[in-house]
């Protein structure tokens, strides 16, 4: 019985350590790493594929969905959810075209609490081409919050 508890504890510790932020060999912050996808704070949005800016608004407990078609051959996708109000909290979940769920992500996940979640999703072997979905959730919103993504 003791051995089973030790093994279970070890598995849980490994799972928790894998799910937390890590760094790669270049000391770059990695938020999530799953099945070839690496999510980290955005570096340079000028060279990455990103959604054309869409403006929307959200209230407490509301969910909005946005789509982005990713072309074959892309290796990096910038996802920039910006509401600019640190008093409100939005949550972002990314669904890849090949069925992976990345996130959820919160304001602090890109390294700065500024009313913005600015992330790069990378896959050196290529991002899944097709329709990607972004789920924006009004985690804690006073009234209505305008945002862009």
UniProtKB/TrEMBL annotation:
Which branch of life, at top level? Archaea
Q: What is this protein called?
A: Peptidase domain protein
